[in-house]
């Protein structure tokens, strides 16, 4: 059994990790940390886990994390980079669900996250945990940078087109919408029901911290710098991301066949039949990205529709998928979940 620790188990990503790992046949939950809630039973905070998780929250010092096989960081940005080195030195593998190790350019990272990096020597080593691109590297990794939610939906949508070189990579557009859980479990006016309900708004148009992550990933695939306009929106949903992606076609190809071939055998990417319009509710609670590709009026613009659950394939589910690869388990172990409807 894989001995698992979770640092930061009180947020939405943390409880989603607990939900998935509690039914995972190959793991044993060793510790779940929270300084503020130390001593409280996990199931007391999250009654949905009654009968599934019998642990109490502990402080990181009392959790004996160095005795784990893998530790997940479900913490705010800037926490994992303080503790990762010690864990790696003890032979523990680390999967960071925050952004501490996603961006290779440290000056770019500091610009967007407003702090100096505490373990810059580990940034280059970290493997970006998007399995559909980096599966081989993930298998041999000590440290995995779990992708962000928007970057997952956007990169999976553009990936087949950029790999095939059939679009203009200099003028990409990502028009994305997310539910309020993407903002985390914290008291914030904009996430209040009276503010977010019955409302729809764009934010971060001048620049969003996921922009450099997406651009880095797409540039690596393209082999040249990509031009990307990324505009996120907040919707009155709890879960879900819908990414509508636009690009100019430079070669006349069968787009449907291109996507179907690229994702053939990928358990967690579902290319829908031609003409489909994926809905966020079709992935709610599941570790799957559903994609549809369109060419309106047969013109020179391709439109990709990509939907994920931001807490699962966009966070905790993808982290468990990475863990499965890391420990040579079947990739879908613990992730064979039917989406919730309605």
TrEMBL record:
<dbReference type="InterPro" id="IPR036291">
    <property type="entry name" value="NAD(P)-bd_dom_sf"/>
</dbReference>
<comment type="similarity">
    <text>Belongs to the NAGSA dehydrogenase family. Type 1 subfamily.</text>
</comment>
<dbReference type="InterPro" id="IPR000706">
    <property type="entry name" value="AGPR_type-1"/>
</dbReference>
<protein>
    <recommendedName>
        <fullName>N-acetyl-gamma-glutamyl-phosphate reductase</fullName>
        <ecNumber>1.2.1.38</ecNumber>
    </recommendedName>
</protein>
<dbReference type="GO" id="GO:0003942">
    <property type="term" value="F:N-acetyl-gamma-glutamyl-phosphate reductase activity"/>
</dbReference>
<dbReference type="GO" id="GO:0051287">
    <property type="term" value="F:NAD binding"/>
</dbReference>
<dbReference type="InterPro" id="IPR050085">
    <property type="entry name" value="AGPR"/>
</dbReference>
<dbReference type="Pfam" id="PF01118">
    <property type="entry name" value="Semialdhyde_dh"/>
</dbReference>
<dbReference type="InterPro" id="IPR000534">
    <property type="entry name" value="Semialdehyde_DH_NAD-bd"/>
</dbReference>
<feature type="active site">
    <location>
        <position position="149"/>
    </location>
</feature>
<keyword id="KW-0028">Amino-acid biosynthesis</keyword>
<keyword id="KW-0963">Cytoplasm</keyword>
<comment type="pathway">
    <text>Amino-acid biosynthesis; L-arginine biosynthesis; N(2)-acetyl-L-ornithine from L-glutamate: step 3/4.</text>
</comment>
<feature type="domain" description="Semialdehyde dehydrogenase NAD-binding">
    <location>
        <begin position="3"/>
        <end position="141"/>
    </location>
</feature>
<keyword id="KW-0560">Oxidoreductase</keyword>
<keyword id="KW-0521">NADP</keyword>
<dbReference type="GO" id="GO:0005737">
    <property type="term" value="C:cytoplasm"/>
</dbReference>
<dbReference type="Pfam" id="PF22698">
    <property type="entry name" value="Semialdhyde_dhC_1"/>
</dbReference>
<dbReference type="GO" id="GO:0006526">
    <property type="term" value="P:L-arginine biosynthetic process"/>
</dbReference>
<comment type="function">
    <text>Catalyzes the NADPH-dependent reduction of N-acetyl-5-glutamyl phosphate to yield N-acetyl-L-glutamate 5-semialdehyde.</text>
</comment>
<keyword id="KW-0055">Arginine biosynthesis</keyword>
<dbReference type="GO" id="GO:0070401">
    <property type="term" value="F:NADP+ binding"/>
</dbReference>
<dbReference type="InterPro" id="IPR023013">
    <property type="entry name" value="AGPR_AS"/>
</dbReference>
<dbReference type="InterPro" id="IPR058924">
    <property type="entry name" value="AGPR_dimerisation_dom"/>
</dbReference>
């Amino acid at each position: 059994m894989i001995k698992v620790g979770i640092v930061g188990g009180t947020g939405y990503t943390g409880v989603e990790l607990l939900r998935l790992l509690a039914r995972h046949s190959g793991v044993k939950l060793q510790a779940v940390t929270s300084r503020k809630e130390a001593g409280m039973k996990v199931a007391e905070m999250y009654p949905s886990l009654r009968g599934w998780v019998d642990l109490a929250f502990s402080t990181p010092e009392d959790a004996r994390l160095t005795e784990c096989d893998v530790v997940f960081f479900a913490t705010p940005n800037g926490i994992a980079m303080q503790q990762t080195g010690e864990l790696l030195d003890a032979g523990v593998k680390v999967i960071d669900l925050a952004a501490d190790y996603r961006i290779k350019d440290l000056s770019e990272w500091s610009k967007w996250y407003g702090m100096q990096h505490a373990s810059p020597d580990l940034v280059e080593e970290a493997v970006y945990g998007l399995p559909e691109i980096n599966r081989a590297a993930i298998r041999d990794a000590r440290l995995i940078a779990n992708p962000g939610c928007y970057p997952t939906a956007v990169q999976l949508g553009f990936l087949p087109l950029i790999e095939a070189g059939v679009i203009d990579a200099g003028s990409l557009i990502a028009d994305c919408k997310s539910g309020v859980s993407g903002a985390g479990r914290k008291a914030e006016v904009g996430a209040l029901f009276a503010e977010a309900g019955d409302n729809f708004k764009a934010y971060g148009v001048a620049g969003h911290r996921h922009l450099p992550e997406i651009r880095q990933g797409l540039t690596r695939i393209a082999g040249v710098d990509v031009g990307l306009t990324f505009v996120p929106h907040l919707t009155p949903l709890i879960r879900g991301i819908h990414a509508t992606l636009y690009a100019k076609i430079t070669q006349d190809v069968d787009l449907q066949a291109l996507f179907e071939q690229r994702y053939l055998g990928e358990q967690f990417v579902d290319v829908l039949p031609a003409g489909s319009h994926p809905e966020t509710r079709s992935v709610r609670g599941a570790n799957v990205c559903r994609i549809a590709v369109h060419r309106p009026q047969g013109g020179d613009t391709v439109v990709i529709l990509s939907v994920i659950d931001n807490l699962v394939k966009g966070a905790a589910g993808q982290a468990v998928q990475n863990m499965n690869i890391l420990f040579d388990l079947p990739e879908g172990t613990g992730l064979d979940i039917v989406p919730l409807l309605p």
